[in-house]
Amino acid sequence: MIENNRQQQHTAARDSVIRGDDIHNEVRQIVVDALKNGQMEPGHIKEVIQAVVNGAFEGATENEPEAKKVLQQTVTGIDNALSQVAQASSLAIEEAAGNVEEFTEHDLKRALTDLSDLEKLFFDTLADVAKGGQKMTSKALNNIVEHLQQSSTSVGRTATETSDHLLGFLANQGKNIQLADVAKTTGASVARVASGLLAGIADSLSTEEKK
Question: Are 162 and 87 in contact (CB under 8 A)?
Fold first, then answer.
């Protein structure tokens, strides 16, 4: 089932690149749809990004400037989708913090750490995918990643802002959360809450775009 989903995401991204009409928004929607219906955990997010970028590789032309252009749009779409993921994670952590019976402090630490690491996950996954691409597409993707690392990403800005907000929010609730050395063993429950919230954020954004 998971393999079928990844193939669908791969194919959808490839077809979007081939059409070339609205790659940025179509890719953003592919990623959001993949994450809003499942557990929004780092491993799952990484697999979705890999499927989408590999699909974009497959759909890219052999013309270097054109390939770079469509990959830039693909990466921007993923970046914007992950920014929405960060927003959903922030809301889920706030909700979890108020439900002491269901969520432990470890759940909150894990979710906060995943949120803080979201931009790094984005960069690391893109770098991994670039290693497996053709010379031209790999070079184009690496150049895009290097540029983003020197400037900024939407997900990086959102993750930083929401993390800072959450640490203050939790401190006001008497929870002094330290993010270092958090075991990656639990916390999936917060990710499931975030997946549900992501759907609402995506729907709201789609409505605003239509207006």
Answer: yes
